[in-house]
């Protein structure tokens, strides 16, 4: 059993992520080494208004975003949606996506990247 207390979680600045705008704050809720090879990221990203992650693809993995707070414009391939708290997006292997904070306050998302495994 492991616990990951908020005050012990590591923060990492992510400037202009994937060609995006601004410096995002990434909080490693669970450190990558503790994901046991099943993924590379489980954390919370905080965006100031207008900040973004640029369009990028996922190869050999997939990512799930879930909005915790704020308002986001998210693309998944050619589809664009506005997401709010509780809404989520999955970018599957081989697809592209991006996200921008279009709200007046901070945008906080849970971001998880998992490795692809063959279906059994």
Task: Sum this structure up briefly.
By secondary structure, the chain is an all-beta fold. It is 0% helix and 54% strand.
Please tally the helical runs, counting DSSP H or I stretches of 4 or more residues. Answer: 0
Structural class: mainly beta
Q: Strand tally, please? A: 10
Average pLDDT figure: 94
Strand content: over 45%
First-last Cα distance: 27 Å
Helix-strand topology string: EEEEEEEEEE
Name the poorly predicted regions. none
Q: Residue share in helices?
A: under 10%
Q: What's the Cα radius of gyration?
A: 14 Å
User: How are the strands ordered across the major sheet?
Assistant: 1-2-3-10-5-8
Biggest sheet layout: 6 strands, antiparallel
Coarse morphology: globular
Walk me through what this model shows.
Helices cover about 0% and strands about 55% of the residues. The chain has a six-stranded antiparallel sheet, with no helix packed on it. The chain has a four-stranded antiparallel sheet with strand order 4-9-6-7, with no helix packed on it. The protein is mainly β and about 120 residues long. It is globular. The chain contains no helices and ten strands. The protein has strands spanning about 10-15, 25-30, 40-45, 50-55, 60-70, 70-75, 80-85, 90, 95-100, 105-115.
Strand and helix layout:
Elements: E1 10-15, E2 23-28, E3 39-47, E4 52-57, E5 61-69, E6 72-76, E7 79-83, E8 88-91, E9 96-101, E10 107-115
Antiparallel strand pairs: 1-2, 2-3, 3-10, 4-9, 5-8, 5-10, 6-7, 6-9
What are the defining features of this structure?
120 residues; mainly beta; 4-stranded antiparallel sheet; 10 strands; 54% strand; globular
